[in-house]
Amino acid sequence: MATGAGLHHCSVLDLIGNTPLLDLPCLAPHPSVRVLAKAEWFNPGGSVKDRPARSIILDAEARGALTREKVLLDSTSGNTGIAYAMIGAARGYHVKLVVPGNINVERRRTLRAYGAELVITDPLQGSDGASRVAHEIHQQAPQTYCYADQYNNDANWRAHFQTTGPEIWEQTAGEVTHFVAGMGTSGTFVGTTRFLKKKNTGIEAIAVQPDSPMHGLEGMKHMATADVPGIYDPSLVDRLLEVSTERAQQMVLRLARNEGLLVGITGGAAAAAASEVASTLKQGVVVLIFPDSGSRYLSESFWEEQ
User: Cβ(231)–Cβ(152) under 8 Å?
Assistant: First the structure.
C-alpha cells in the first residue's frame, strides 16, 4: 500500500497571498460606489509584509546571496521582521533584526517567539535610524550577513506586482477604478500600482502618508521628511492624501465597533483616505489595503480612551 497517497500538504510559504477582499459599504456613501479592502492579516505571519519577505528571501536564495552560513539581516518596524523571522525559522536561517525602541510589545514578543535576534535602536530615530544601523552592521561584516535591505530591494515591490495586483484585478473582475495604500517602504503601493496601471492606465493610484513627521502610524513614512526608500517611484502617485494619527485611530475604532473588523492603525489610515476618495465619486470601485490586524496594537491606549 502506497504511503502518502492522496495527502495534501504545504509549507508556510504556500499560505502567503490570495487574501480575501472585504466589502465595506459603510465607507461608500453612494450606491454605485463600492469600497473593498484586502484583508492582509489572513497571511500566515499576520500582515501584508509576508509577501515581500517571501520574495526577498527566495530571490536571495536564487542568487546564492542567502545560505545557511549567512545571517539574514534587515531593519524593520515590526511586520516585515515578523515575516522574516517566520520564514527564516521555517527554512533554517538565523535572522537578525534592527528595530526602533518604540515598537510595541506585541511585535517585540512575536519576533522573539520566532527566535529572531533583536538589535534595539534609538526610538527617536524611528525606522530611518534602524535602517542606518542595519547598514552599518552589514558594512562592518559583509561576509557574515545577507542584508535584505527592504527599502531598496526590487524584490519588495515585485512581490506585489506578481501577487497583490493580480489578485485585486481578478477579485474585482477588472472593475477597480481607484487603488489606495499607505506608504512605508512603498513596496505595496509601487508594485500593485504598476500592475494595475499595466492593466488599465485609467486606474487612479492614491498614496497615503501621515500628516506630520511626528506621528503614531507605525511603519508609515512622512516622505517629505523621511529617508525616501530607493524603490519609491513618485511618478506613480496620482494623488497623495495625508491622515492624522487621531483620524486613523478613530476609523479603527469605528470599524471594530460598527463592522466587527479589527484592523491595524495603518489600515485605519488607508480606510480614512478611501472614505475621503469615495465621498467624491458617483460611481467606481475603490480598493484599499488593510496591512494587518488590530491585534498587533492592543497594548496601545487609544482603545480605552474613546
Answer: yes
Are 180 and 286 a contacting pair, CB within 8 Å?
yes
C-alpha cell at 270: 488607508
Note whether 165 and 118 are same-domain residues. Answer: no
Question: Which residue do the cell numbers 497583490 mark?
Answer: 164
Strand partners, 118: 97
* In-domain check, residue 193: yes
Between 9 and 302, residue with greater pLDDT: 302
Q: Which domain holds residue 247?
A: 12-44+160-305
Each residue's pLDDT tens digit, 159-191 = 999 999 999 999 999 999 999 999 999 999 999
Q: Which residues contact 185 (CB under 8 A, 6 or more apart)?
A: 52, 80, 150, 151, 156, 229, 231
Q: What are the cell numbers at 21? A: 477582499
Q: Is residue 135 part of a domain?
A: yes
- What does the longest C-alpha to C-alpha distance in the chain come to? 66
Written as nine digits, the cell of 247 is: 483620524
What the block records as the C-alpha cell of 268 is 485605519
For 58-79, write each residue's pLDDT tens digit: 999 999 999 999 999 999 988 9
Q: Classify residue 2: in a domain, yes or no.
A: no
Q: Are residues 191 and 124 in the same domain?
A: no
